[in-house]
Amino acid sequence: MTLKEATEGLEYTIKQIETDDEEMNAFLFSLGCYTGEPITVISHLKGGCVVSIKDGRYNIDNQLADAIVV
């Protein structure tokens, strides 16, 4: 399942990042979003979702949310 389909408030472990876009990979890595890292969906928004990674909260769009498999 992707982050777009994840339940709010539950902690998941990132299994895979499905993208061939190196910029997107680099951006997600800079947020601390990589395989094996815990991630929590705080809320779903119309254009994406708010996630908690490590000690930060980030608003990511649907394209990024679809690339993160949990």
Automatic annotation (TrEMBL):
Pfam families: FeoA
InterPro entries xref list: Fe-transptr_FeoA-like (IPR007167), FeoA_core_dom (IPR038157), Transcriptional_repressor_C (IPR008988)
KW Cytoplasm (keyword) present: no
SUPFAM superfamilies tied to this protein: C-terminal domain of transcriptional repressors
Keywords: Iron
Highest taxon of the lineage: Bacteria
Ferrous iron transporter FeoA-like domain mapped to chain residues: 1-70
Gene Ontology molecular function, alphabetical: transition metal ion binding
Protein name stated in the entry: Ferrous iron transport protein A
Source species: Merdimmobilis hominis
